[in-house]
Amino acid sequence: MELTPARLPRWILVLAAVGGLFVVLPLVAMALRVDWVHFVPLVTSESARAALLLSLRTSISATMLCVVFGVPMALVLARTSFRGQRILRSLVLLPLVLPPVVGGIALLYTFGRRGLLGGTLEALGVDIAFSTTAVVLSQAFVALPFLVLSLEGALRTVGTRYEAVGATLGATRWTVLRRITLPLVLPALISGAVLSFARALGEFGATLTFAGSLQGTTRTLPLEIYLQRETDPDAAVALSLILVVVAIAVVGAAHRVRPLGSLAPARPVAPALRRAVDTH
Amino acid sequence: MGLTFAAQLAERDVDVRFEVATGETLAVLGPNGAGKSTVLSLLAGLLAPTSGRADLEGSVLFDVGASRRTLTEPRERGISLLAQEALLFPHLSALENVAFGPRSRGVPRTAARATALGWLERVGVAELVHRRPHQLSGGQAQRVALARALAVEPSLLLLDEPLAALDVSITPTMRLLLREVLQGRTAVIVTHDPLDAFLLADRVLVLEGGRIVESGATAEVLTRPVTAFGARLAGLNLVQGRRTRTGFAGGNGIEVPLADRLPEGTALVLAVRPAAISVSLSSHPGADAAVVRAEIDDVEHRGDLVRIHAAGLAADVAPADAVALGLVPGIAVDLRIRHGDATVYPTRREQQDSGRSTAGSGR
Questions:
Q1: How far is the CA of B16 from the CAs of A102, B26, B39, B40, B201, in angstroms?
Q2: Where is the ABC transporter domain (chain B) (predicted)?
């Protein structure tokens, strides 16, 4: 038997519809402005191709950085307790609420030529600011909290009981991590990585501030769109549509990865009910 | 050798000391929050004691004191834990769950799977090897979990209410399976079911408020309890009292003559089954029975009988008699106990061997 869904006041439905339109309508408006006749030439121009490829390359690199450093960060935040942990967590999540331009300035004064680490890096022969590396760093900086946040939540939900069982069965810490913890949070890891990728792909402010806008080197797709908007609005709209399609694909992918908990109910309800009936 | 355990855990106010011989099963009973699961967690290494020491078959599990702190990692203790929930790894098949322990201890994949299959057969679920945990019923999952716990050949098996979360219809077969695998195995089982203690354990230990209040052979504790909790487990009435010049005098007025030589003032308890107490509106205190007159506090319907609570005692009467006598809370009744149905013994268990005393004609 299925329960009838709760009835809601009508004005709630109205407000919800208005909110939905507010999100969807601008996308429709933009799609309506696309110059379909010249769409293919517009999105395959040399500058557009360079920007798209650069965006994909840097976003993938940034996502990998997020995974490499974000997974250990989430593990430390979820599985240990130490003084100042709450403050540290807030700081880690700061890029989420910080204006990206501010992030870019902060990065500039860290990795820039006259920044905190600039001298050291220069001595090593590394020049980061206004290079492709700077793009990756900007994107990783803003995208990292997405991965840490989603993974830490999943780790806390899964709890430590399976890990304790693994330990009593003789597994080393590394085996527990590899064969129990990570497989259990894999869905969250994937959706967190997908979200980080999406955030990296859309990154604009920090990139512009810290990496500049050099075609083929630091001019990612969002920067290209912003520039084209002045000179060739049709190209800007066409490229925007590409980003919208990528975003929809990403959101779809993130949704398809169901959390393990919902995929594996502790005990199927139907057999339990049948057993109860059989015994009476 | 076996297990010797002594530990204090300040933040949970637990202070417990006991031993388990090799091959022996100890049942730990007690009300909720008594510290039963804490003891298991200390043994498994999931909690560290404030102080204490435990050894299992000659190797140290923990040794914590003012100047020393040895804590063996859980994986090096040789102790398996079977909890109330099966806690099978949800992303692994039944076979891989059971093979997890051997593989973690360095057994090659093929050999570990062979071992796992053997254990799954032993617990009677060999046909479920490729199922994922969410495709198993509660009972099947608990069998797989048992196989997983045994597959690492533990020196000590810990069972934390292993039957509590199961369907009532499958607990009997699961209990028999446990009885079978616990033969000759060193184990500690936490339970609230006296039946588990009767069928599975050689010895019983009752915890209350983080302290041991009773311990002894299972039959001894469940037939001659000295605490209210032990009495409730055994389904007995327990009356605290003292030795007088003539016999036993209980706190609720019961007097039973005794023929022993215990000194006056010795703390004694009287145990009597609820079915052995007869209830009437008035009766004569014959030479062979004690009578207590009291108001009924509560009347409880229990299927085929009615339980009367009065004067701190529970008495079972037939429903027809309860109706005929008009037994309702507030009316005064006579509770009559034949001397021969009452068992009287000292509260302190160590005095029992020398000072065991049974009332009247004895049982």
A1: 59, 14, 8, 11, 19
A2: 1-234
